[in-house]
Amino acid sequence: MKKKVLAMLLTTALATSLGAGAITASADEDVKKVILSFYTWTGAPTDTEMVQEAMNEITREKLGIEVELQISDFASYQQNMTLALSAGEQIDIMANLSSTYANFAQQGYLMDLNEDDLLSTYGQGIIEALGQENIDACEIGGVLYGLPNNRDWAQGRGCAAIARQYLEGIGYEIDDSVEIMRITLDELNEIYEQLHEAYPDKEVYRPTTTSMNQFSNVDALGGNVFGVLLNNGESLTVENLFTSDFYKEYCARMYEYNQKGYISQDAATDTTAVGELVKAGSVMTYTTGGKPGIKVQETGLSGQDMVIFQTMDNYISSTSLAGFPWAIPINTEDAEVAMTYLNELYTNADLMNLLAWGIEGVHYVVNEDGLATFPEGVDATNSGYYHSMGWELPNQFLTYVWEGNNPDLWEEMKEFNNSAVVSSASGFTFNSENVLNQITAVQNIYNEYQASIELGFVDPETAIPEMNDKMMAAGLQDIIDEKQAQLDEWAATK
User: Fold this and answer.
1) pTM of the predicted protein model
2) pLDDT of the chain, 494 residues: tens digit per residue
3) How many Cα atoms are found within 13 Å in the side-chain-facing hemisphere of 57?
4) DSSP single-letter state for residue 47
5) Farthest-apart Cα atoms in the chain, separation
6) DSSP tally for the chain: helices H, then strands E
7) How far apart are CA 125 and CA 320, in angstroms?
């Protein structure tokens, strides 16, 4: 199935700029094609093909490679990738979620990026951009299946984004001197109560099945919550989340919200992105992760001026570095070509800005201060290419900073990463191979209960023990024990 490998170098200087072993092409050779799969909240923007061609104008001549962008909506991405990978469809480079990365690797869908010196030969720019120690954090059982992306590795936990117009409607005093307002959980609850009283026809808060992780002090080892570290990973003792005081209190709070009418009755089944719901005027607030630039990001996402509140610490968990790894599937047509293109994504600012913001002059312009913004007559609602998900891309630090942020945002982001509370298990990656059957069985039970419990539709006093009993019967303790054994072994080497 493979096409012939491109062999002729354009020039010695070009080869040097690409790094050792880079693939190039002469004018009379076939151009290689890579399929790049990633996600946005709502799927492919309308001008995706225009952006794709602009990217190809760069790499067709420089690398002898063209790209085809395959963009799914976030809600469907995991299912789409599972179907494509299992069917053997060509995918050369793909974004991953922490929840899918280990599963895809252990199902044999992802390549070992160190095999045959693939990364070291064709990815020197990646190594320089990330640092070897950070790359190693993506290893699973000593095998490197994916690469971290340059972004906010830390996350401000316990954050809520609330549309300014509603806060002003209840007379709340907003502190515009800070990007993120620090408050207590009790104070946030008071805001929700006032919002509900003032706007009874609107949904106060839209939780999702990721909200519990974002609004917690839990380190979800291996990207799942079947055996976790509590209290920001201060201790390396793996515990059962579903018998913890934290989980009981969190679900009780969601149940109270639901009983008070803060949460829509279709929240468990509606897959509409929260930003779209705020944009439509039906939802006032949702959970997000805190970081430098989050206000501008969420404002662009929601089409409204959003105010960000934070109630917990900035935190780096064991899976933070491997939160959104980029990988090369076994379905790639040519791994060397795929790694060469991936290397370019990590090092080429023009490609990163195209993926992040679209085409300059069409989808964005750059002001005299070096900040990007919309051209005249264009905004988040009518732009043909705007997804506000630069954090997902290989190297966000190469992209323009968007207007409204500090021009030094990426330096702020690096400092944010360096100053966060760090889990004592940071860099640990769980290999679930020995408990795959148990994870599948426990995950099925969790899928059955999670939305109803964590979105507050059932009484947690009775539902949590019922779910936990079924999970324990399905092998939850086996998973916890396996995580503890691997964590102990990992810790002994540190």
Assistant:
1) 0.77
2) 333 333 332 232 323 333 334 444 434 468 999 999 999 999 999 999 999 999 999 999 999 999 999 999 998 999 999 999 999 999 999 999 877 888 899 889 999 999 999 999 999 999 999 999 899 989 888 899 999 999 999 999 999 999 999 999 999 999 999 999 999 999 999 999 999 999 999 999 999 888 999 999 999 998 899 999 999 999 999 999 999 999 999 999 999 999 999 999 999 999 898 999 999 999 999 999 999 999 999 998 899 999 999 999 999 999 889 889 999 999 999 999 999 999 999 999 999 999 999 999 999 999 999 999 999 999 988 999 999 899 999 999 999 999 989 999 999 999 999 999 999 998 888 888 899 999 999 999 999 999 999 999 999 999 999 999 999 999 999 999 999 999 999 999 87
3) 9
4) T
5) 70
6) 19, 15
7) 22
Which helix (DSSP H) or strand (DSSP E) does residue 341 occupy?
helix 335-347
DSSP 169-208: HTT----TTSSEEE--HHHHHHHHHHHHHH-TTSEEEE--
Q: How many other C-beta atoms are found inside a 10 Å radius of the C-beta of residue 252?
A: 15
Rg for the chain (alpha carbons), in Å?
Answer: 23
DSSP annotation string for 57-74 = HHHHHHTSEEEEEEEEEH
Interatomic CA distance for residues 89 and 93, integer angstroms: 12
Question: What are the φ/ψ torsions at residue 368 (nearest 5 degrees)?
Answer: -60, -25
Pull the structure tokens for residue 248. Answer: 């009981």
The helix or strand, by DSSP H or E, that contains position 479, with its residue range, turns out to be helix 476-492
Burial of residue 208 (CB within 10 Å: 0-12, 13-18, 19+) is buried
